[in-house]
Automatic annotation (TrEMBL), chains A, B:
<protein>
    <recommendedName>
        <fullName>Magnesium transporter MgtE</fullName>
    </recommendedName>
</protein>
<feature type="transmembrane region" description="Helical">
    <location>
        <begin position="279"/>
        <end position="296"/>
    </location>
</feature>
<dbReference type="InterPro" id="IPR036739">
    <property type="entry name" value="SLC41_membr_dom_sf"/>
</dbReference>
<keyword id="KW-0472">Membrane</keyword>
<dbReference type="InterPro" id="IPR000644">
    <property type="entry name" value="CBS_dom"/>
</dbReference>
<keyword id="KW-0813">Transport</keyword>
<dbReference type="Pfam" id="PF03448">
    <property type="entry name" value="MgtE_N"/>
</dbReference>
<comment type="function">
    <text>Acts as a magnesium transporter.</text>
</comment>
<keyword id="KW-0129">CBS domain</keyword>
<dbReference type="InterPro" id="IPR006669">
    <property type="entry name" value="MgtE_transporter"/>
</dbReference>
<keyword id="KW-1003">Cell membrane</keyword>
<feature type="transmembrane region" description="Helical">
    <location>
        <begin position="418"/>
        <end position="442"/>
    </location>
</feature>
<dbReference type="GO" id="GO:0046872">
    <property type="term" value="F:metal ion binding"/>
</dbReference>
<dbReference type="GO" id="GO:0015095">
    <property type="term" value="F:magnesium ion transmembrane transporter activity"/>
</dbReference>
<keyword id="KW-0479">Metal-binding</keyword>
<keyword id="KW-0460">Magnesium</keyword>
<comment type="similarity">
    <text>Belongs to the SLC41A transporter family.</text>
</comment>
Amino acid sequence: MKELILNLIDSGNYSEARKKLIEMNEVDIAQLLEELDKQKLLIIFRILPKEIAAGVFSYISNQLQEYIIASITDREIKNIIDELFLDDTIDFLEEMPSNIVKRVLQATDDETRKLINQFLKYPEDSAGSIMTIEYVDLKKEMTVKQALEHIKETGVDKETIDTCYVLNENRILEGVIPIRKLILSDETTVVKDIMDTDPVYVNTHDDQEKIASLFKKYDLISMPVVDNERRLVGIVTIDDVVDIIDQENTEDFQKMAAMHPSDEEYLKTSPWVLAKHRITWLVILMISAAFTGNIINKYNNILQSIVILTSFIPMLMDTGGNAGSQSSTLIIRGLALGEITTRDIFRVILKEVQVSFICGFVLAALNFIRIYFLEKINLLVTLTVCVTLFFTVMLAKIIGCVLPILAKMLKVDPAIMASPLLTTIVDATSLMIYFTFATWILHI
Amino acid sequence: MKELILNLIDSGNYSEARKKLIEMNEVDIAQLLEELDKQKLLIIFRILPKEIAAGVFSYISNQLQEYIIASITDREIKNIIDELFLDDTIDFLEEMPSNIVKRVLQATDDETRKLINQFLKYPEDSAGSIMTIEYVDLKKEMTVKQALEHIKETGVDKETIDTCYVLNENRILEGVIPIRKLILSDETTVVKDIMDTDPVYVNTHDDQEKIASLFKKYDLISMPVVDNERRLVGIVTIDDVVDIIDQENTEDFQKMAAMHPSDEEYLKTSPWVLAKHRITWLVILMISAAFTGNIINKYNNILQSIVILTSFIPMLMDTGGNAGSQSSTLIIRGLALGEITTRDIFRVILKEVQVSFICGFVLAALNFIRIYFLEKINLLVTLTVCVTLFFTVMLAKIIGCVLPILAKMLKVDPAIMASPLLTTIVDATSLMIYFTFATWILHI
């Protein structure tokens, strides 16, 4: 398909190319544009019918959006903005440099410009910044027949008509009604009698994380957004929520690997920006690892007198780190999904004590077999290593579950408390346990 | 609300309690049941109208489902199964022990039993196991008016009527049409002329991961599932896909923290099961860390002659591990979201070389300042540590980006290649680099 269209463009047969393009899904056209050189992409973009062009525009990358806006006329910009849903316009403008934003605003009419400016003021990641205003509103006194006629007259430009919103004369939200219920009800039924008067809704300033968790909890397809007076100002639709869920998850993955969260795509981010996101935590963790070095320094006489002890340091530190990050990951994920709350802290600790007892015992036993029987190392040294391993695993798992919950209590993101930071803490503690037991057991 | 209902139950005023319950959202009733003792929960469950009881049933935990099925009559079981959507029935039966499954199957009628048995045969996590059969089907010769009448007659039991499916006489999928388009079109229009003839669909055996990525790519609300002859057998709806996205993310988090993936909730899982999920990787990683110990052993003479070198080992190993897991996490996430493909391997390596050059340089420079100027340690030792750190960061980041891509090429889950396994590899390499440079620079 791609080659066919490119051939048609090359031979100047634009009308035929247009016909083929119209048959394609907008997402696939967007993907095609991403792969083309800039000249061809502009030709293809310009021969698209304007509704399709707007749809395609909302699916392409920020770089391409910027290039296209910079290359087309004000008239063409206005056409695209008129066809775009308001939430897609806001998404796009939030990522553009100010000269592009200015140009877009100048090209649009007064009313749209006012709306865009108002929406751009909502804090990023709030309900206000992701909602759309293209919804269907009904009055509670309407009959089903009147409601369906109203939808037919006004529904063309709405992002979703699956749910309709019932407002009073002050635009205060009185109820919602799924279109399904309207279609299945008798024509003379009054909206008031079949609407749901207790819908789930959010405020314009609520965070997108809250929105995502309400969508998941109540299996919603769309949700009303109201202002402080409960006036309906917009709706959030599930397609945006799916993106939010991925975005929040990506942020957690990045924080857990000691990086500044960013929602830019990897291949489209410059090495400088990538390095900037990573370097702070690397420096912090590097400096804190120096403390671990100091502990080794302090006990150097022990290592000097029983040289073999040094070779177990990596195993003890790594196993402690792994055991701890298993626990912290489960707890961080449980907190993020709402399966664990801060009130569960004692249940969690109790469970981790049990789990770490089992894990620590098995690991210590296997180590004993390997070190004493296979490597035939002195019994007291073997005991020192195995006892240290057992307590390191216990401690690592307990620290690993407590830290994320404490973070949550202190309103810090639990994901920050993940493996790298935990490993640094566990490293130091495991060495101290090691040298303490070495002093006791080996009488050094 | 909760206490009000409990008081009404206690005073035997069931009809009033029922009235209050009907006003509540099914999700909230389910949450209420989770908090009650078993006797009260059964009373409340029994006074619910049967459609609501079925909805509530689909939202409660497996433990409660099992308890309820074991406590109610066959007649009541049949009522619930009749009201449940088929995909919820399958979800529930997949988690139940065989005696409960048997009891449920005996209580249902022949036709439902046959359907359930057929669905239970689809592989877990395939399109077949998550689809529902409650969809609206149309014929392409119908007018919009006939189509809407058909929906009105048959739509009550359908999970979603937002999209209708156009089938020929052999039930082969010919197109889809959103209900929105039907409502907004003229009554005399024929379905054939407004349907989308090229819908996105999946096969019953396709994996749920593929389904989730198609939903995300095309912003879908529902998607048809067909058999090998392109006959429509069911549809998947977005509410199930949202759960899949969370489930897949949780699995990735768990694999990346070196655990066997599991979709059981943390607090509801026994310590034995939790320990079982964690111990295998802990043992594997512990044993491989023994190799790192062997490297230290081998170069013990170096550590003996310049004792201070030992104290930098934790810092070098930790920084290498952190630098590597930053890269691997970004790559694993990029692969999971489809932002990076295996074909990008050389672009990724090039980028990581640049990023690691910047990070390595900054870290080495800071270290030089700390070790040489602040801790006033010998210049050659300082140089050994800094040069090692630079090359360790370079190598860790390159290994960290290559391993997940190689895994993907070999059809292994890239998440397996995450920090713990990577750390083990980087530990060994960083020590070898360290001792090599120590031999060269310090002439030991």
